Amino acid sequence: MTTDSLSAGDDPRRLLLDIRTLTSRVRRDQRLTYVALLVLAAVTFAAIPFDWLFMTVHCDGSGCTFARRGMLYYWPPALLLAYAAIAVSYVRAARARGLGARVLPYAITGAVTAVVFAAAYTAAAAYFPTHPPFGGGPLPFWWIVLDRLIAPWGLIGLALLVLARLERNVALLLFTLGYLVLMLLVSPTTDDTNLPGWAVPSFMSGASMQLPWSMTPSQLIIGAALLTAGIAFSRARRSQQ
Amino acid sequence: MTADTDTPDPTGHPATGLDEVVHQRIRLGILAIAHEARRVEFGYLRTHLDLTAGNLSKHLSVLETAGLVDIEKGYQGKRARTWITLTTAGNTALAEEISHLKTLIARIETTTEDR
User: Fold this and answer.
1) N or C, where is chain A less crowded by C-beta within 10 Å?
2) Which pLDDT tens digit goes with each residue over A146-173?
3) What are the chain A neighbours of B81 within 8 Å (beta carbons)?
4) Is A44 in contact with A187 (CB distance < 8 Å)?
5) What DSSP state is assigned to residue A196?
6) A-chain residues near B43 (CB < 8 A)
7) pLDDT tens digits, one per residue of B34-84
8) Mean pLDDT over residues A76-104, rounded?
9) Which backbone phi and psi does A142 adopt, to 5 degrees?
10) How many domains does chain A have?
11) Does the beta-carbon distance from B101 to A12 stay under 8 Å?
């Protein structure tokens, strides 16, 4: 190897190309995208039974209302643990390859979203029972989209955008945009699904109730999207190696 | 060594602003990898820059003497490992080198078009 400061290989274009090649190689070696997606998929699937078990049901003469308390009990700690696990995995894998990790801003964003969700959910649970939005009438679509955006699955998507930026990962960016479209605009609403009720014991209501299936399909769809992407990123990584 | 090139003559040729320490393919590669990786292990640099341990050590020594990298030696389990981190001066030097290279390319392209 030459130690001269100027040589035939020091053409400025060649040097810049070398820098780009080396830095993109480092970024590829630092990535552990599939682990992040698989952890988030696991957390999403694990939320489903919590949703059922911690659902509160209030019935009166006009019918029954369901409150998903499991959202508050499960998601904030689950998200914090998930982002901690993802950060530790990234750091360990990068260190094993002889590199530092650039996952910290993602983990911090994820942790902040967990706190934002908990605060928003608590505020909504305290305010809306006595002040129903839009006078208790039908909700506009933008409201439903906003509601989904600050739900755990929407916040997972926002944090994934940060990860895609950190990793300069175009494939992850495209997936995340598709995921957000699916989650915000396509995923069925509670009213769209006419699935039968299912008798399950609810810890909060203290009795076996006919609880609606309707909120489960969207969680299954979101979990399946994350799981599929995780497997795809894992296979792509193996083929690159 | 780097101080002379911190304020290149803006009216001069862009090549006069190039830092002799940084404007070298291998050392530039070390700085680029260390910048992107936050910190990088000796073995990773040796593998990806395709160098012998001795040659890499010489380049690292030049960069360390110029204050562009910090070198930290330690153990991971029983295995000795050497970690390289870019200093603030190293970050600045890398950014300036890239800026000078882009200016040089622009100058070359302008000159070629004029002909």
Assistant:
1) C
2) 888 888 989 999 999 999 999 999 999 9
3) 98
4) no
5) P
6) 98
7) 999 999 999 999 999 999 999 999 999 999 999 999 999 988 778 888 999
8) 93
9) -60, -30
10) 1
11) yes
Could A100 and B51 be called an inter-chain contact, meaning their C-beta atoms sit closer than 8 Å?
no
Q: What is the pLDDT of residues A161-206, one digit of tens each?
A: 999 999 999 999 999 999 999 888 876 655 554 545 555 555 555 5
Please compute Rg for chain A using Cα positions. 23
Q: Which residues of B touch A169 (CB under 8 A)?
A: none
B106 inside domain:
yes
d(CA B76, CA B20): 35
Closest Cα partner for B59 from B72, B80, B37, B42? B42
Question: How far A240 CA lies from chain B's nearest CA (Å)?
Answer: 16
3-state helix/strand/coil string of A115-180: HHHHHHHHHHHHHCCCCCHHHHCCCCHHHHHHHHHCCHHHHHHHHHHHHHHHHCCHHHHHHHHHHH
For residue A224, being part of any structural domain is answered with yes
A95 in a structural domain: yes
- Residue A95 domain boundaries: 14-234
Number of domains in chain B: 1
Q: Would residue A5 count as lying in a domain? A: no
CB A214 within 8 Å of CB A68: no
* pLDDT above 90 (res A210): no
In this structure, is residue B11 part of a structural domain?
Answer: no
Tens of pLDDT, residue by residue over A6-42, are: 444 568 888 899 999 999 999 999 999 999 999 999 9
- For residue B27, is it within any domain? yes
- Tell whether the model's pLDDT for residue A86 goes beyond 80: yes
ipTM over 0.90: no
Contacts A101 to B, Cβ<8 Å: 38
Residue B84 within a domain: yes
Chain B nearest CA to A33, separation (Å): 16
- Quote the pLDDT of residue B31: 96
Residue type, B100: H
Q: Domain containing B67: what range? A: 18-110
